[in-house]
Amino acid sequence: MITHLTSLNILELNSAIKTQPININLKSNKIMRTKTTKFLILGLCTLLTGCSKTTDEEINESQTPITEKIFAFKYVDNGINSVVQLNPNNGSEIKTIANLGNQYLRIAKYYSNTDEILGEVNENNTKKFYRIKVSDGTISKYNYNGYDDFVIGGNKLYAFKYNNNNNSIVELDPTTGTEITILKSVGINYLKNFVFSQNTNTIICENNTTKSLYKINCINGNTESFNYYGYDDLAISKNGQLYGFKYTTSNNQIVELNTSNGNEIKTIKSVGSKYLKNMFYLNSTNEIVGDLITDSSTHNYFKCKVSDGISSENTFGEYDYFIF
Predict the structure, then answer these.
(1) For residue range 146-178, what is the model confidence (pLDDT) as tens digits?
(2) Which of 137, 186, 141 minimizes the C-alpha distance to 164?
(3) What pTM was computed for the model?
């Protein structure tokens, strides 16, 4: 039990104890305390117990410690757009990281190596690579080529480059957005729903052209492709478990997929006709998290345990997408 005493409490108790009479029997060398002193000791125990802050109610309020940083892009029509930090436990807004005015931040990802948010803004028809410091909201801008999506792989930044019949996965400098090298040319194939497997150092995504699971080895650029159902979103844990959101009109589901070939292993949770967007994996609690949409105006912060499918929903603000 954790207890708290103020300096005033301690001084008062110390003064009281010093002023109480104590009888000492020198022959028996034993200290005989008076009833008054015993009463003070009992009172001290009561005070210590009463000062305890660890009640069940307060433990419940604290919930799971925040160990992962989750952000969101907040679009305000004819207002000030912003990047905000969210509480991963319930989706509540913690603070505003940066105000962007009327600029729209695309494809943003959290780059933990430098504690920055990386994204793209089209300023007056000029594409800019944005770096936003989480600590103070400072924004650094660089002219760059512009890409359809980012994926963070370890300490590296990759992007999908759309170029009609010569699309590719490229590596970018995370400081300026400058293109370093082409990891893999994919021709006319259009790739989406990127995740990164730390276990295998592999980019996993969906080939929207062939409706297949597509895997690119980031060491040598080798690729694998597997026919699969096709999912609206993918999420992956740091240990390599892969999940997909399966849209079926009336019985939408979160499912676990085989990371090797995209085969469906099992259903984690059915959400009926509700639609889950911006799905990601919260490693600290082993939950799938996303924005659950009941209708166009109702958004809930949704969490689902992958172990048993138990889920929770909290009403929260409407955001364009999560940044993680």
Answers:
(1) 999 999 999 999 999 999 889 999 999 999 999
(2) 186
(3) 0.79
Phi, psi of 172 (to 5 degrees): -115, 155
Give 109's contacts (C-beta < 8 A, 6+ positions apart): 117, 118, 119, 150, 151, 152, 157, 323, 324
Taking a C-beta distance cutoff of 8 angstroms, is the pair 74, 85 a contact? no
Could you tell me how many residues make up the chain? Answer: 324
CB 317 within 8 A of CB 74: yes
Residues pairing with 30 in the sheet: 25
Distance of alpha carbon 237 from alpha carbon 29, whole angstroms:
68
How far is C-alpha 20 from the chain's CA centre? 58
The tokens describing 314, both together, are 């909290």
CA dist 96 → 57, 81, 93 (Å): 29, 10, 8
> On the CB side of 286, how many CA atoms lie within 13 Å of its CA?
10
Closest by CA to 281, choosing from 233, 315, 319, is 233
